[in-house]
Structures are given as C-alpha cells and as structure tokens.
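Tokens help. Consider this.
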Amino acid sequence: MTSRLTILAVVILAFGALTAVALADVGYWGIFKPHFQSWGGAQVLVDLSILAVLFCIWMVQDARTRGINIWPFLLLTLAAGSFGPLSYLVLREVRASRRQLPR
C-alpha cells in the first residue's frame, strides 16, 4: 500500500468515525441545520459547496482522461460530501499502484 493510499484510508476512517458520531447525535439534516441559523454558518456552507463543485469539475476532467465512470463519485459527493472525492482519490491510487506492479 502506498503512503498516499494509507493517508487517504486514515482520513476516510477518521472522518467516517466523526460522521457516524454526528449522525448519531443530530441526524442527517441536523448536520446542516446550524448553517442556516447564522451568517457565519451560511458562509461555511457556501464555502464548502464551492469547494465541492470545484472538486467535482476536476474529478470529471480527470476521470475522462483515466476512463473512470465518474457518476458514482458525483452522486456520493452530493449525498455525503467529502466521501465522494476521497473515494475517487482512493480509486486513482489503487489504479496507479496496479499499473506499477510487474506482470
């Protein structure tokens, strides 16, 4: 396993644990609720939305050059935020490591 793949796995596991705790505490919509209660919360939501859109644009372009079906990752990004791009990066790393293996 490459170091990048290890880092991505650790990030996904840690973020997944945090997400599970948040979902258990406030539920899916409860995660979004604070972002509609103040201008500061709205700014954070818009900022993260801009980042998600920019990352999706990059993923689409990158997936075209690599022959990857991007739709599962775009849908995952819409439904679960960072899990979409993180999963896409894991797939890229796995494919790259497979190309480096001697056959």
About this structure: DSSP finds four helices and no strands in the chain. The chain has one domain: 3-100. The longest helix spans residues 3-32. The helical segments are 3-32, 39-66, 71-80, 83-100.
